[in-house]
Amino acid sequence: MSFDRRLLDEDTVMQICFVTHDAVKSASWFADLTGKPMPPMTFSADPDKARAEYRGQPADVTCKIMMFHFGNIDLEFLEPGPEQSAWRDLLEERGPGCHHIAIKTRNLAERDAYLTSRGHERLQRGEFQSGTGRYAYYDTRPELGALVELLEFDRDKVI
Description:
Elements: E1 15-19, H1 23-34, E2 41-43, H2 47-50, E3 53-54, E4 57-58, E5 63-69, E6 74-80, H3 86-94, E7 97-105, H4 108-117, E8 122-127, E9 133-138, H5 141-144, E10 147-153
Parallel strand pairs: 1-6, 7-10
Antiparallel strand pairs: 1-7, 2-5, 3-4, 3-8, 5-6, 8-9, 9-10
């Protein structure tokens, strides 16, 4: 299937994320509902490793994550730390709910230029805890009701 590649390198959505006040409680509810086993809790990268930016400024942003893996997509429950972040903002504005859809990219710089040229502000970016890539969130709430996240993995990166 052929598709326009202005944003997509692959014809897939990697992840849907729900922001919540309590990742364990939300994941427990989902595990009970679906019969999926509880995933392990993971955390955002340490601030010195994450090198995060929030609204264009260096930021120490933290979160807890519980990720359910399916054959075709991951479902993430994310509990933001107390500091201001793209995660905390949406939780405070609207309460628990869909935070973002994540798309894998091979060229974050190119896709960043495309999204910002379309008027979608980059709200937050940072490095993965694993040190194998990075993420960036773009404000697509007026059109989508949620953010778009781009995920770039070093192993796939086009320089």
